[in-house]
Amino acid sequence: MSFYDTYLEYENFDTEGFLKEVKEPDVLGIIKKNKLNHHDFLALLSPAAANCLEEMAQRAQELSLQHFGKTVLLYTPLYLSNYCVNRCAYCSYNIDHDIKRKKLTYDEIEKEAQIIAETGLKHILLLTGESRIETPVSYLVEAVKIMKKYFDSIAIEIDPLEKEDYQRLIEAGVDGLTIYQEVYDEEVYKQVHLAGPKRNYHFRLDAPERACEANIHNVNIGALLGLNKWQHEAFMTGMHANYLQNKYNDVELSISLPRIRPHVGGFRDVYPVTDQDLVQVLLAFRIYLPYVAITMSTRERGSLRDHLIPLGVTKMSAGVTTEVGGHSDSDKGDSQFEISDTRSVEEMRKAILNKGYQPIFKNWMAI
Ligand code: SF4
């Protein structure tokens, strides 16, 4: 039994028909409940719920304060390599794109780590394109050992691995995994993942669970909003998080809500997601899964990110570059996509304080 069985149960569910039937009084009743079921959650993604955003925001804020207080954890991504063997329609690193490729040497990794550590951040996310040849697990293990000298929490966002490989990385010092399914609809998944090992939908879908079985401390999942109808994708993401939370209740779960950003290549989001849609998804996640952390990245513009802090966001990136080697002056590799919020760590720290919240630089340290 894995989440794929739950996915199959809902594969042919008439989501649109269900959403049309939801009425505003239903939504107002649901947000008063202590525990929501799957259908309650789906109702919060309906057009009727879009007319109840104020009420949903009040409930989401109440739950966020109860479970997380007024805190926002800060972290930054560090891109180790932009070599990739996949053909994802929506990404600059796609093997077909003529971009400047680069993989950091161990000396360059150390230099980037030193520069980031000077900002005071203690949480780091290591990213690579997907290439077992350029960035094998042995390379990542060495990178993690370097990171351990500078950071208290090290997460990875890389290709899906077997449980034993996750164990190797956890032993080296990794405590978090970010892995986006990108799109939960299996047909659409095949359409946007044109070639490469990433076409294996099932192997990717089960990756968070393999990491949980390897005893990772935290897992962050999500769908890339814009690839498919957002109601369906948000619903499956919430169901996936709920499944993992119930089965691995010692793992700290997070959800991200990334929207497609400009990149090299002609793909544009097929199903636009407005700011209001994004807010509705955020509120629905918070009300359905009050204990789950919610991450908002620099894909979103600064004013919107600030506005979302009281509504349930608990983790934010800062001082971000998506270029390989982008923190130091060295020869850089091209970026994965354009970011929107370009603020430094210090600027983000002040912005969070201005909202009356506490920026957290460290909330976890492996012993
Ligand atoms: S999304 Fe990931 S796997 Fe796909 S092309 Fe970009 S880096 Fe490679």
Automatic annotation (TrEMBL):
Chain ranges of the Radical SAM core domain: 70-299
InterPro entries assigned: Aldolase_TIM, BATS_dom, rSAM, rSAM_sf, ThiH, ThiH/NoCL/HydG-like
Organism of derivation: Alkaliphilus metalliredigens (strain QYMF)
Keyword Repeat: no
Coiled coil segments of this chain: none
Known cofactor(s): [4Fe-4S] cluster
Presence of the UniProt keyword Metal-binding in the record: yes
GO annotation, biological process: thiamine biosynthetic process
GO molecular function: 4 iron, 4 sulfur cluster binding; catalytic activity; iron ion binding
SUPFAM superfamilies in alphabetical order: Radical SAM enzymes
Protein name in UniProt: Thiazole biosynthesis protein ThiH
Pfam families membership: BATS (PF06968), Radical_SAM (PF04055)
Keywords, alphabetical: 4Fe-4S, Iron, Iron-sulfur, Metal-binding, S-adenosyl-L-methionine
